[in-house]
């Protein structure tokens, strides 16, 4: 029986909180399992450094992901090369795995549009800031693949628990159900939409059960168990591309997890939630869980963990160095991308702007 | 009257607090307005004071927030919903333009909506994408709505109380760049500042500079700098975008014969266009120079690395005034 054929209340798990196997370990090679761990460590370290860059004034407001690595890496690792990813704004880890260099994620949060210039072959949409607004895009992208007969391609879309309250969630999933599009709707239920708890978003017992109303499959998974996340996502992607007799393509996955830190660096979670609650969830931290499993099964040892730590630090340091030494965007750049060609109005404004810059220099514009 | 020294965001909070104490029908709703006290602290302490039925954390759904507020207001409550950033109004836009603006008209006055939709707006705080736009003209273009943008703590409280007491729906846009930039005297008691009246912030004879919201500060600074060049400028703070105080605009212009409009919203279709047309319609024969618009450019608001180049700066305002004066 497919892992998707479960009651939406029945949470899929593979590892318990100590990393002991309690479910079916997905059939993947050792290298992939170690990579899963490496990328989770990388995402965590990146996150820690990004928060500190913001604190030091080297970066603007940033949304941290710590606690959510299992969901991001476990799911993104299940994608095939040709699949597409449509993220919200917190998927720095998943986007990295899809091929977006960390340098670009940093540039985006440092206020450069260039961060969204996807390298060729990276099947990734830019982050969507307005909540849930990306969900219909994911449905449309998957629909396009279906209409063009590209049956080997699915589209995964990430969003949070708060997003399930928005109209766009309803419309995106409803279209997916009606047009049977190859979608995986991956809800990172981290319990808090800024200060508003999951219970205030819906009176439904689970978010996964919302799938039922759209006529699609819904499954709940322990989002801090990367192996369970991988299994569920892989099954959903396979079904999206190659549904069995009587099966629909789209799936809603509710990955139950927790945001350890603030909503963004502009948020102070101590105002609205207790330390006890945070500690309770920290016991489910996906990284030590996977590490314990990998050690226990002889896939990694102290030496390997140390090497991964070094590698992760180096990669993040290199990315920060690359982002900070990237040339500042040219101010005239803002006139170049509104349309394929500057309209006469924009051209006139550009010329006025350049004349002012000539006259006053950058000091004529920059505020303290 | 006793007074307090408050910032603009504190004046918002104080206005809500004052009016909620006076009128049990007033309630606050939105995302994170309750226990968290609002992401800018505009509703801080109100949840403790008035409880869960009058300071309501809603699901994350702007159409739901605006739409349910419409229903509440139709039943006689006075909801003051908050949209966390004006950039997130758009899921609620249908409710705003299809219903909030026209319930009175559609029912020939049988149902009215005494509600105020608050949202911080504008750029300059190094915020993420979609957090910095100035789209007041979307709402000014919609008949049936009043659109208010304060620029001082005193006006903030007085205009907010006027908005809550107004029988018609008001869009109350708060300039977040200056939420905490300075303090001003604000009476502890309730008082009103009338909607629909501009304020002359500085009198002058050479040129009229019309502005509002966060742009009043760079405008006043520019005008002060230009004193050294012998330019005596008048500064008019528009305060209410709709209905526009055309009388004050025309009166000022007739005195100076020259005008500059400063706003951070895009130039195309911005308030500058409406002010220019008003001058052309009502004071053509007084006109000594083309009206100069110093505005945001007609491109998407850039991510923050370039936002200073987008927003009207003191130097840009000065240059615009020189252009109008030296024509």
From TrEMBL, chain A:
<dbReference type="GO" id="GO:0009083">
    <property type="term" value="P:branched-chain amino acid catabolic process"/>
</dbReference>
<dbReference type="InterPro" id="IPR029061">
    <property type="entry name" value="THDP-binding"/>
</dbReference>
<dbReference type="GO" id="GO:0016624">
    <property type="term" value="F:oxidoreductase activity, acting on the aldehyde or oxo group of donors, disulfide as acceptor"/>
</dbReference>
<keyword id="KW-0560">Oxidoreductase</keyword>
<feature type="domain" description="Dehydrogenase E1 component">
    <location>
        <begin position="37"/>
        <end position="331"/>
    </location>
</feature>
<dbReference type="InterPro" id="IPR050771">
    <property type="entry name" value="Alpha-ketoacid_DH_E1_comp"/>
</dbReference>
<dbReference type="InterPro" id="IPR017596">
    <property type="entry name" value="PdhA/BkdA"/>
</dbReference>
<dbReference type="InterPro" id="IPR001017">
    <property type="entry name" value="DH_E1"/>
</dbReference>
<protein>
    <submittedName>
        <fullName>2-oxo-3-methylvalerate dehydrogenase E1 component subunit alpha</fullName>
    </submittedName>
</protein>
<dbReference type="Pfam" id="PF00676">
    <property type="entry name" value="E1_dh"/>
</dbReference>
<dbReference type="GO" id="GO:0044272">
    <property type="term" value="P:sulfur compound biosynthetic process"/>
</dbReference>
Automatic annotation (TrEMBL), chain B:
<keyword id="KW-0560">Oxidoreductase</keyword>
<keyword id="KW-0786">Thiamine pyrophosphate</keyword>
<dbReference type="GO" id="GO:0016491">
    <property type="term" value="F:oxidoreductase activity"/>
</dbReference>
<protein>
    <submittedName>
        <fullName>2-oxo-3-methylvalerate dehydrogenase E1 component subunit beta</fullName>
    </submittedName>
</protein>
<feature type="domain" description="Transketolase-like pyrimidine-binding">
    <location>
        <begin position="6"/>
        <end position="181"/>
    </location>
</feature>
<dbReference type="GO" id="GO:0044272">
    <property type="term" value="P:sulfur compound biosynthetic process"/>
</dbReference>
<dbReference type="InterPro" id="IPR029061">
    <property type="entry name" value="THDP-binding"/>
</dbReference>
<dbReference type="InterPro" id="IPR005475">
    <property type="entry name" value="Transketolase-like_Pyr-bd"/>
</dbReference>
<dbReference type="Pfam" id="PF02779">
    <property type="entry name" value="Transket_pyr"/>
</dbReference>
<dbReference type="Pfam" id="PF02780">
    <property type="entry name" value="Transketolase_C"/>
</dbReference>
<dbReference type="InterPro" id="IPR033248">
    <property type="entry name" value="Transketolase_C"/>
</dbReference>
<dbReference type="GO" id="GO:0006082">
    <property type="term" value="P:organic acid metabolic process"/>
</dbReference>
<dbReference type="InterPro" id="IPR009014">
    <property type="entry name" value="Transketo_C/PFOR_II"/>
</dbReference>
